[in-house]
Amino acid sequence: xxxxxxxxxxxxxxxxxxxxxxxxxxxxxxxxxxxxxxxxxxxxxxxxxxxxxxxxxxxxxxxxxxxxxxxxxxxxxxxxxxxxxxxxxxxxxxxxxxxxxxxxxxxxxxxxxxxxxxxxxxxxxxxxxxxxxxxxxxxxxxxxxxxxxxxxxxxxxxxxxxxxxxxxxxxxxxxxxxxxxxxxxxxxxxxxxxxxxxxxxxxxxxxxxxxxxxxxxxxxxxxxxxxxxxxxxxxxxxxxxxxxxxxxxxxxxxxxxxxxxxxxxxxxxxxxxxxxxxxxxxxxxxxxxxxxxxxxxxxxxxxxxxxxxxxxxxxxxxxxxxxxxxxxxxxxxxxxxxxxxxxxxxxxxxxxxxxxxxxxxxxxxxxxxxxxxxxxxxxxxxxxxxxxxxxxxxxxxxxxxxxxxxxxxxxxxxxx
Length: 416
Fold this sequence. Notes:
Blueprint: E1 3-7, E2 13-17, E3 20-21, H1 28-39, E4 46-50, H2 56-64, E5 69-73, H3 79-86, E6 96-98, E7 112-115, H4 118-123, H5 129-158, E8 177-181, H6 187-196, E9 202-206, H7 210-215, E10 222-225, E11 245-248, H8 253-258, E12 263-268, H9 272-281, E13 285-286, H10 292-303, E14 307-311, E15 340-343, E16 349-352, H11 354-369, E17 373-376, H12 392-401, H13 404-410
Parallel strand pairs: 4-5, 4-7, 5-6, 8-9, 8-14, 9-10, 10-11, 11-12, 12-13, 14-17
Antiparallel strand pairs: 1-2, 2-3, 15-16
């Protein structure tokens, strides 16, 4: 790593890492203090701060919560030595300095907060071992902040509805095959084959893909919704679908208020009110990871499916096309050269964003630990370790091997 110290406009020292300013060029301590004051949950008992640098974030944190437990996760094995060249040792005398290999030793049951300055994340090169870990932490943190009030309003509204619960559905579909339908570009090619087999295999659609299925006169057996934002109403506008809807307790309340089909409420880990309510009801909780497709996968696992076919789960894009043209989530990115790359199932390279990379990693890690057989139909989508690409011949063979008579009997649970 490249470390450079300069004088800021106010004559304090400021720092660049890999040619990127991690503090202000004008008021470095004030900038760091503002981040700490705006981002610290003072009710936490333990704080893990990313980066020591010149100690500005740490000094501000100790000022704000002087009696709390604090650890600093070093960016580099030489960071402490670098700090001592310019700064006072007394600041770190009572602070535990840890390395990336020690993250797993942190007690996850403590009331802990990770403090991750975005400027430090941005200064790390793409190969740094902390980059991927804290890109995910920061993405989740920023996503939560954007919709925190909305999630609370949704939760209060949604738990008052005439909801159904899923604890009695655990393992119901043992031995069966499911298609998890997402709205990536490859889904358009799969539609004729899903239509042909829609009564032979369980089809779970993410909310953004229901419109695509309906365009091809396909009714999924269930839909899953996780998005809290009001705009998600567009995904259900003028749709005829009235089948079972599995939804997070914090999902868009306007969709749920107007939905006349059966509604199964789901509770997410990491959201205190959801965890507490689920515990009272003895309902399961799901570590959703910010993606409705992840929630869909976990739901299928809970329901007992032994084979899952990923349809439209591209997890990458080429020439800026990120979604099917038939979904309200569709978007086209013109400046796609600034994104990372990942290998596609056809052996070529495609672009991938930070958020998609996080979801891609989640699927690979989940599949590695799971006994579920997972297959991928996105030939031009990202290769997922443990989820081999299957062509249409293999896809049809999987469907033929599924016991559709038993499937139809088990689907009766949604009709009663």
